[in-house]
Amino acid sequence: MRYEVKVPPTADGSLAVTIVSWLKKVGEAVAKGEDLVEARTEKITLYVTAPADGQLVEVLTPVGGQARVGDVIGFVEGA
Amino acid sequence: MGARRSPSPHLSSVLSPVLGENRVLKGYWLDLGLMPYLPAFAIQEQVLQARMEGRLPATIILQENPPTFTIGRAGSRDNLLVSPEELRQRGIEVLEVNRGGDITYHGPGQMIASPLLYLGDLGLNANQYLHRLEDLLIELLAGYGIQAGKKPDYPGVWVSEAKIGAVGIAVKHGYAFHGFSLNVAMDLRPFNWINPCGVPQMAVTSLEQVLGRPIPLAEVKARLRQIISDMFYLDLGDIAWADLQAIAQSA
């Protein structure tokens, strides 16, 4: 099953965050709840965590790209 | 890091959501005193991990650092205006650290507070929480008769055109960490050796400089403790790091 990696709803919905780093590469195994992405505004850093156990299969928003709260920025393939 | 565990039964009462003034969140006030940046940050990370796993309740970590420049992910050494050798001679450490923002200075007499709070308990999102931290500093300063405010495009707390307090948070699984700093009674000269937060010629000030008299840090901490307890409905007990560590390990 394919799981969406989403910017968590812990900040204002209108907020644009910049992807600072993907902590896993495409193809790497991830565990549910594990840190996957670090995104930030000027004074807020948000950690995006893996939605399921599995493998990171696609990155939609690369480092330097911008996303908003709720946006899908990648996919994890899991059981 | 694995999935979150359920809170242990004896902690479930203190982890309940805050619903109003008659519901308080029990927690700890951990004052690390003067401690270098890296070991103090390591403690913060351990407390955060224990918080996320339900092994510790809300914890406010206080610290002062020896003279240190820290450069965040948005920063560069270009905003450091003196050579690293000169800084080493003056005994000032330069660290590239894992936070947002640009370069800043930490030193004795600057109060750094990191509330490790669950935003869900507070009913706030990260932006609202960040603004509440600024409000908290403004209220603390108002208690000293200082009129401080925010600037629309520059985070932090300002007295006239000079920055007196900084804010910066990170959020993981809804748990906030990092926090804010307030220049209480410190040597401000090292700020002249950087473009603070990447802004050239940004003026900085301190509580002591604004008031023109010595201000004991202990007194400011006591006032902060009262204000933060009132603002977030916290009931905070003093604790030493060794004891907090023991609680986290036994939970």
Q: How would you portray this structure in words?
A:
The complex is a heterodimer of chains A (79) and B (251). Chain A is 0% helix and 53% strand. With 79 residues, chain A is mainly beta. Chain A has one domain (2-78): RNA polymerase II/Efflux pump adaptor protein, barrel-sandwich hybrid domain (OB fold (Dihydrolipoamide Acetyltransferase, E2P)). Chain B has a single domain (19-250), classed as Bira Bifunctional Protein, Domain 2 (BirA Bifunctional Protein, domain 2, 2-Layer Sandwich). In chain B, helix 5 crosses helix 7 (217-232). Residues 1-19 of chain B have low confidence and may be disordered. Chains A and B meet through strand 5 of A and helix 5 and strand 9 of B.
Helix-and-strand structural type of chain B: alpha/beta
**Into which percentage range does the β-strand content of chain B fall?**
25-35%
CATH superfamily of chain B: Bira Bifunctional Protein, Domain 2
Q: Percentage of helical residues of chain A?
A: under 10%
Number of helices of chain B: 8
How far is the N terminus from the C terminus of chain B? Answer: 18 Å
Rg of chain A over CA atoms, rounded to whole Å, is: 12 Å
Give the distance, in angstroms, between the N- and C-terminal Cα atoms of chain A. Answer: 6 Å
CATH T-level topology of chain B: BirA Bifunctional Protein, domain 2
Biggest interface between chains = A-B, 21 and 25 residues
- Mean pLDDT rating of chain A: 91
Using the CA coordinates, give the radius of gyration of chain B. 18 Å
CATH class of chain B: Alpha Beta
Largest sheet of chain A: 4 strands, antiparallel
Mean pLDDT value of chain B? 87
Task: List how many beta strands of chain B DSSP finds.
Answer: 12
State the major sheet of chain B. Answer: 9 strands, mixed
Determine the fraction of residues in helical runs of chain B and give it as a percent range: 25-40%
The number of E-state strands of chain A comes to 8
Oligomer: heterodimer
What's the arrangement of strands in the largest beta sheet of chain A?
A: 1-8-6-3
